[in-house]
Write a sequence for this structure.
């Protein structure tokens, strides 16, 4: 990497700048996409309004619209997610009952920091493993292998620490719920049923808060990933420190061997003024044995002191690096604990309400108004262009009267009708799958019996106890048919309410 920057600094920094630009675009993609959409429509010669204004044909399905008008409205509809207030509140209710309301996904900046930590860890591991990755291979190949192995270890550690933090958060919520259950006297079950996001969230409103939480999170805390992560981190920390120590000992051994092999005790006496030259070539003067031993002892002590200082300094550094490594993994666990969700479908609910962009349905409507006003402005500009072109070359003399709100109202009406047809087809399919009676006579008797029971239930009005008593007196087969019919009626009523809410929303917007 250093050689690449030194050899081609312009190319290297260009690549770095491009990567940073791509990162910024990915983080701000929704805003950049909206800005570019509006800019592309407003360009003078090649913009969307200029291009669409050339088409003065009427829409084939609705002559009150120009094709160009509908094309523009469809392009801006992509930025609007039609959402019912009831559905929005259902997602909020799921998050609240799961204990995740107010939490968010891991921010992009935290992921960027995590990637930076992975890079630092990979660099540190690569230098440790470089000499032992591929014994006998060239230095470059060893270095590449060390980078690969170090990167794999770092990615595994990041994933393990993130999941461990999420597991600790989820288990903590379950422990709190179970503690509430214990303090309430352990009355009833800890969970009645698994509540999915698609179901009405009011089904367990009568249950205590701990039951509602465990219906969406679970009943048993778990620490398998956390324990495995702790063991893996300790093994890597000890192994990396040991390998670093072995590399240090090898260097110190080579240093000691080199110094000992090149050390010699000899004295060369030179005299300059009298011309006497007693160099190593001419004459060697050996010191006395006692002085030679003392001199050698001093040299050995100096060498041993250097080795001892290097050894203690190196091992101290490695221990500090091990603590830093463990702290980085703890930081990864804290990231996983701080962000994320405990509920099984909390993340889907979080994304469905705008990924934290909206705190209430009023924010949803405000965002809708901003996009709709911008789309209406572009539509009016297009309509002016169409009228100018129609006045010059048209022959029908028609005027544009439609708005973007008219288009969205028609789209909502169409989607409501489609949902109604889908529900009707689903109910027909369920009736077709029901077991057929053995004989026509028996069928007519059963139908008449069911109808008569349902009529009696309707006459009882709101007296639920009387209705229950009546149903309990029925035969098993007839009771099952009556309950199935009551369930179908309830589903029809829920579908009718949904359609009614959609109609009310259409009127508000």
């Amino acid at each position: 990497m250093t050689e690449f920057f030194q050899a081609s600094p312009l190319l290297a920094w260009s690549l770095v700048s491009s990567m940073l630009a791509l990162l910024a675009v990915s983080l701000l993609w929704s805003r950049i996409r909206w800005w570019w959409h509006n800019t592309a429509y407003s360009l003078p010669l090649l913009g969307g309004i200029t291009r669409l204004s050339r088409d003065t044909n009427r829409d084939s399905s609705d002559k009150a619209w120009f094709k160009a008008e509908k094309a523009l409205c469809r392009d801006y509809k992509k930025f609007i997610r039609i959402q019912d207030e009831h559905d929005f509140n259902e997602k909020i209710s799921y998050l609240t009952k799961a204990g995740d309301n107010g939490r968010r996904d891991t921010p992009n900046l935290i992921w960027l920091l995590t990637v930076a930590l992975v890079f630092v860890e990979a660099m540190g591991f690569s230098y440790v493993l470089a000499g032992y990755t591929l014994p006998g291979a060239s230095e470059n190949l060893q270095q590449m292998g060390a980078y690969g192995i170090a990167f794999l270890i770092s990615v595994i550690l990041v994933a393990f620490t993130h999941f461990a933090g999420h597991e600790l958060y989820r288990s903590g919520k379950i422990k709190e719920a179970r503690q509430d259950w214990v303090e309430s006297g352990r009355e009833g079950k800890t969970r009645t049923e698994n509540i999915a996001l698609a179901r009405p969230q009011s089904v367990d409103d009568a249950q205590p808060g701990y039951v509602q939480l465990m219906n969406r999170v679970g009943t048993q805390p778990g620490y398998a990933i956390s324990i495995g992560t702790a063991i893996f981190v300790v093994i890597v920390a000890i192994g990396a420190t040991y390998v670093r120590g072995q590399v240090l000992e090898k260097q110190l051994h080579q240093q000691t061997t080199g110094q000992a092999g090149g050390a010699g005790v000899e004295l060369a006496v030179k005299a300059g003024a009298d011309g006497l030259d007693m160099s190593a070539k001419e004459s060697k003067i050996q010191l006395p044995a006692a002085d030679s031993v003392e001199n050698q002892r001093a040299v050995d002590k100096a060498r041993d002191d250097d080795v001892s200082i290097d050894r203690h300094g190196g091992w101290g550094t490695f221990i500090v690096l091990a603590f830093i490594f463990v702290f980085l993994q703890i930081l990864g666990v804290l990231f996983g604990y701080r962000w994320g969700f405990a509920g099984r479908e909390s993340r889907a609910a979080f994304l469905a309400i705008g990924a934290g962009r909206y705190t209430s349905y009023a924010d949803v409507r405000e965002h809708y108004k901003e996009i709709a006003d911008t789309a209406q402005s572009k539509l009016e500009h297009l309509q002016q262009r169409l009228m100018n072109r129609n006045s010059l070359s048209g022959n029908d003399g028609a005027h544009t009267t439609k708005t973007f709100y008219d288009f969205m109202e028609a789209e909502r009406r169409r989607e409501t009708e489609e949902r109604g047809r889908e529900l009707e087809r689903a109910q027909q399919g369920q009736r077709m799958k029901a077991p057929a009676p053995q004989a026509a006579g028996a069928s007519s008797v059963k139908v008449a019996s069911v109808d008569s029971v349902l009529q009696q239930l309707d006459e009882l009005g709101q007296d639920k106890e009387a209705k229950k008593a009546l149903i309990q007196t029925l035969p098993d087969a007839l009771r099952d048919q009556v309950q199935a019919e009551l369930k179908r009626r309830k589903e029809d009523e829920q579908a009718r309410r949904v359609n009614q809410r959609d109609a009310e929303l259409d009127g508000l917007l």
Remarks:
- The longest strand covers residues 269-270.
- Residues 231 and 315 are 23 Å apart (CA to CA).
- Confidence is low (pLDDT under 50) at residues 262-283, 436-448.
